[in-house]
Specification:
Layout (H helix, E strand, L loop, with lengths): L4 H29 L12 H18 E18 L19 E13 L3 E11 L9 H4 L10 E2 L4 E2 L10 E10 L4 E9 L8 E7 L5 E10 L2 E9 L10 E12 L2 E18 L2 H5 L9 H4 L13 H6 L6 H20 L2 H17 L2 E4 L5 E4 L8 E4 L3 E14 L3 E12 L4 E13 L4 E9 L3 E2 L2 H7 L15 E16 L2 E14 L8 H4 L10 E13 L3 E6 L2 E7 L3 E9 L10 E15 L2 E13 L21 H4 L17 E11 L4 H4 L8 E11 L2 E12 L3 E10 L2 E11 L5
Length: about 750
C-alpha cells in the first residue's frame, strides 16, 4: 500500500509527538551526563541538539519501509600515477595505453526494503572503459546510505548518529542556517582517535523535527580515501528522509599508484512506502521468505550500452572536460579499427597470456559459461602459520547458468606447502538442477592430507602422557586420493538431506618400509599393506531453524538465521565393494552459530564431537568436521573452527574427539586503550579452543588477532594437560579479498 501525502503527514507528526514525549522523559538525564565542545546555538547547547538528533534517529531510520527509484551514476576516473602493480588490483578496469582519464555512466533500478536490503539492477551502461558493466559493489555502498542508521557503508563505519556515538566522536556547532520557515544547525564531528571505523565531517539538521538535510563524511574504507556528500529531500516532500543526490570522491593509493575517481549520483523516487507505526512500536510476525525485499519487481531485461540512451535521460549534464573525454575516446576507437593489422593479431595471444600472469581476469565463453581467475603470479595468495609454514594457493571458478536458473559450477584448486614440500589439488563440481529446492549433485576429487592407519592407534595408547612425543614414534604415512559423489536436497526450509558415497585410494609414501605380506602371513590376510581402498555410503543431515531466504527467480538463496545450525554425519565403510579392503563406521555431530551483536561486533561458537566404531579391521581416522584444511582460501575460512598450533598428526591420532571453539570480534577492543594511533586496525578478535582426545586432556588454545585491509595476523598460545606448550602466529594477505 502506498500512503498518500496526508496520511504520511499525520503519521510523521504522530511519530514526532511520540519522540517529544520520550525526549521529555529521558532527554534531560542524557544532557546532564555528557558535555561536548563547541558554543551554544540560540541558547541551546550542542549536547542538547545532539541528544534530540540521536533520539529521533532510530525512528527515522525505519520510517521508510520500501521504495523503488531510478539511480543515475556518472563517474570520472583520473589515473595520476601507475605502474605494473596496478594490474594486480581486481576491481581496476582495463586501461588503454597513454590514456589517463575515463568516464563511465550507468542507470539502474533500485529497490530498498527496511531495514537494510538493497536490490539494484543495471539497465544501461556507457563510457570510455572497455566492457563497462557498472560501478563495483563496494562503491555502491556509498549510494546505499541510510544516514539515520547506526553504521555506514554496510557496517564498515560507525555512524555519528548512533546511540553510543559520544564514546567515539567529539561534536561542535559549526554554524546556524535560516530559511523562511526553519532553523538548521550545522554540527561538525571529529573522531576521538584515528581509526578506519570512524569518520570526520558534518551534518545539518532542522530544528523541531530534527531530521537531516545534508551529511558529509570523510574517511578511509580499506584501500580508498573518500569523501561522501549526501543531500536529503526537502521537509514535507515524500523523499524527506531519503537521499536525492550523492557526490563521492575517492583516492586510491597503492604502492606508487594513484587513481582519483569522482562519482555523482542522482536518485528519482517512483514509489515510497512508509512503515506503519505499530511496526515500530510492536513486534512483527517473523516471515522467513524475504523475496519481496530482495527482488526488484520491474522489467530489467533490456540492457543498453549506447551513449545515446543517456543523451535522452541524463539528469546530470556533462561538463566540457567530460565531453572532451568522450570525443577523444570516439577518435581513438576509430583510429584503432583502421590501424588493426596482422602484426597486432600475431602477438595478441602473448599479450593475453601475460595478463593472465599478473591480472585478475574473466573469460566469457559466450554461451558456454564464465571462468574467473585471480592472477597466477600473485604474492597476496601467500599465507603463513606456525604449524604449516608458508603456503601458496590458486583457485579457478567456472560458472554456467542454464535454463530455469540451473547452475553448473566447477572450482579447481591447487596449492603448495613449502614446509612439507607437498602439492595439493582438488576439483569440486556442483550442478544445481532444481534451484527452488536447493537440489544438486556434487562431485569432489583431489588429494587429501597424508595420513597414517589405525594400527598406529594401539601403539599410541600404550605410551604414557608424560613421555609422549610424536617425533619418537614411527609413523607410516599414506597418500590419499579421494572422490566423493553426493546428492543434496532441502526437504523443508532450513533442513537439508545429503546422500552420497565416498571412495579413497591410499598408498604408502614409503612402500619399502612395509614387509611383503606373504612372508609374514602366508595364506592369510594382514593389516600391513602398502595400498588400501575404501568405499562408504554417507548420510548427512543439516538443520538451521528460522532460516531466512529469498527467491532469485527460481533460485532459493539462504541468508542468515537467529538460531544455530546442527548437523549429523554418518559414514560406513563396506568391504569388498570396488576393491574395498576394510570396514568402519564414523559418526560426527556438530553445532555452530555466528551472530552479529551490532556495531560491527560478532560472536562465533562451535561445539562438536565424533567417533569411529566397527574397529576390528584397519581403517583410517579421517574426520570431516575435525580435520586440517590443506588448501585454506582465506582467514575466515577456518580461523574459528580449527586449532592453529595443534600438530596435524593429532587430527588422526584418536578414534574419538570432543571439541569447542569460540571467537569474538569487535573494533576498539584492546589496542585503542593501549596505543592511541591504531588507524590501520579494522577489527580485533579473541579466540578460545578446547579439545579432548587421548594424551590431550585437555588441549587449550587462546589467541588474539587483528584485521587490516592488507593482512590479518593472529598470535596464539597453547596449553597441554595444564602446562604451557608453545606460542605461534598465523599471517595471511587479505588485500582485495574482503
Amino acid at each position: 500500500m502506498v500512503y498518500s501525502r496526508h496520511v504520511f503527514d499525520l503519521k510523521k507528526y504522530i511519530l514526532i509527538g511520540l519522540c517529544i514525549v520520550l525526549s521529555g522523559l529521558c532527554g534531560n538525564k542524557a544532557c546532564a551526563s555528557h558535555t561536548f565542545s563547541g558554543s551554544e546555538a540560540n541558547g541551546m547547547p550542542v549536547d542538547t541538539i545532539l541528544n534530540r538528533v540521536i533520539l529521533y534517529a532510530p525512528f527515522y531510520e525505519k520510517i521508510v519501509g520500501e521504495y523503488t527509484a531510478d539511480l543515475y551514476i556518472k563517474a570520472k576516473a583520473d589515473i595520476k600515477k601507475k605502474n605494473l602493480i596496478l594490474r594486480f588490483v581486481p576491481f581496476m578496469f582495463d586501461m588503454d595505453k597513454g590514456v589517463r582519464q575515463y568516464i563511465m555512466e550507468s542507470h539502474s533500478e533500485l529497490h530498498y526494503t527496511a531495514p537494510n536490503i538493497y536490490d539494484q539492477k543495471v539497465k544501461a551502461c556507457s563510457g570510455t572503459v572497455k566492457k563497462y558493466k557498472g560501478v563495483n559493489a563496494d562503491i555502491l555502498d556509498f549510494f546505499h546510505v541510510n544516514v539515520y542508521s547506526s553504521d555506514l557503508l554496510n557496517k564498515k563505519l560507525l555512524s555519528p548518529l548512533q546511540n553510543d556515538a559520544r564514546k567515539y566522536y567529539t561534536y561542535s556547532i559549526d554554524s546556524i542556517l535560516y530559511d523562511a520557515n526553519n532553523v538548521h544547525y550545522k554540527i561538525s564531528f571529529v573522531p576521538k582517535w584515528p581509526s578506519y571505523q570512524l569518520v570526520e565531517g558534518y551534518f545539518i539538521v532542522t530544528d523541531k523535527v530534527w531530521s537531516v538535510r545534508e551529511m558529509l563524511f570523510t574517511g578511509r574504507s580499506e584501500y580508498r580515501l573518500f569523501t561522501n556528500h549526501i543531500e536529503m529531500g526537502k521537509i514535507g516532500d515524500d523523499d524527506e528522509f531519503l537521499p536525492v543526490a550523492c557526490k563521492v570522491d575517492t583516492r586510491f593509493r597503492f604502492l606508487g599508484n594513484v587513481v582519483v575517481t569522482n562519482y555523482n549520483a542522482a536518485l528519482h523516487y517512483k514509489d515510497i512506502k512508509y512503515q506503519q507505526i505499530q511496526h515500530q512500536l510492536g513486534k512483527q510476525k517473523k516471515m522467513y521468505d524475504l523475496t519481496e525485499s530482495y527482488t526488484l519487481q520491474c522489467d530489467t531485461n533490456s540492457f543498453f550500452t549506447d551513449k545515446n540512451y543517456f543523451q535522452k535521460m541524463r539528469p546530470l549534464s556533462l561538463n566540457a572536460n567530460e565531453e572532451k573525454i568522450y570525443n577523444e575516446y570516439d577518435l581513438r576507437k576509430d583510429s584503432l579499427q583502421n590501424k588493426q593489422s596482422f602484426k597486432n593479431n600475431k602477438w595478441s595471444f602473448f599479450g593475453n597470456a601475460g595478463d593472465a600472469l599478473i591480472s585478475n581476469y574473466y573469460i566469457d565463453l559466450s554461451n558456454l559459461g564464465m571462468v574467473k581467475c585471480s592472477p597466477i603470479l600473485n604474492p597476496f595468495l601467500l599465507s603463513y602459520s606456525a604449524t604449516d609454514g608458508l603456503s601458496y594457493k590458486q583457485e579457478f571458478k567456472y560458472n554456467r547458468y542454464l535454463k530455469g536458473d540451473r547452475l553448473l559450477r566447477i572450482v579447481p584448486k591447487v596449492g603448495y606447502n613449502f614446509k612439507r614440500k607437498e602439492l595439493y589439488w582438488s576439483a569440486n563440481t556442483d550442478f544445481d538442477y532444481w534451484p527452488a529446492k536447493r537440489a544438486a549433485v556434487h562431485l569432489q576429487i583431489g588429494n587429501g592430507n597424508r595420513i597414517y592407519s589405525s594400527d598406529v592407534l594401539d601403539e599410541l595408547k600404550d605410551i604414557p602422557d608424560s613421555i609422549f612425543n610424536f617425533n619418537k614414534v614411527e609413523l607410516n604415512y599414506f597418500r590419499d586420493l579421494y572422490a566423493t559423489f553426493s546428492h543434496s536436497l532441502e526437504v523443508f526450509n532450513g533442513f537439508t538431506l545429503n546422500l552420497g558415497v565416498s571412495a579413497h585410494r591410499r598408498t604408502a609414501v614409503n612402500p619399502a618400509a612395509f614387509a611383503p605380506i606373504d612372508s609374514l602371513h602366508p595364506g592369510g590376510d594382514s593389516k600391513i599393506k602398502s595400498k588400501y581402498k575404501s568405499f562408504a555410503p554417507r548420510i548427512r543431515l543439516e538443520w538451521t531453524p528460522g532460516q531466512y531466504y529469498y527467491m532469485n527467480g527460481k533460485r532459493k538463496v539462504n541468508l542468515h538465521s537467529d538460531y544455530p545450525s546442527v548437523s549429523l554425519d554418518w559414514e560406513r565403510g563396506v568391504k569388498g565393494v570396488l576393491g574395498s579392503t576394510g570396514k568402519y563406521e564414523r559418526w560426527e555431530f556438530d553445532v555452530q552459530h555466528q551472530r552479529s551483536l551490532g556495531l560491527m561486533k560478532s560472536v562465533y561458537w562451535r561445539l562438536g564431537g565424533g567417533m569411529f566404531t566397527e574397529q576390528e579391521e584397519l581403517y583410517f581416522v579421517d574426520f570431516v568436521n575435525f580435520s586440517k584444511n590443506n588448501l585454506p582460501v582465506g582467514w575466515n575460512d577456518d580461523i574459528g573452527g580449527v586449532f592453529q598450533l595443534l600438530d596435524r598428526r593429532w587430527y588422526n591420532s584418536s578414534n574419538k574427539y570432543v571439541r569447542a571453539n569460540f571467537t569474538y570480534e569487535a573494533p576498539f577492543l584492546v589496542l585503542p586503550h593501549i596505543v592511541r594511533y591504531t588507524r590501520n586496525v579494522l577489527n580485533e578478535r579473541l579466540y578460545f579452543g578446547a579439545l579432548l582426545v587421548p594424551h590431550l586432556m585437555p588441549y587449550l588454545e587462546l589467541g588474539y588477532g587483528i584485521g587490516t585491509h592488507i593482512f590479518d595476523l593472529g598470535v596464539f598460545v597453547s596449553n597441554v594437560n595444564g602446562r604451557f606448550s608453545q606460542i605461534g602466529c598465523k599471517f595471511t594477505f587479505e588485500l582485495f579479498n574482503r
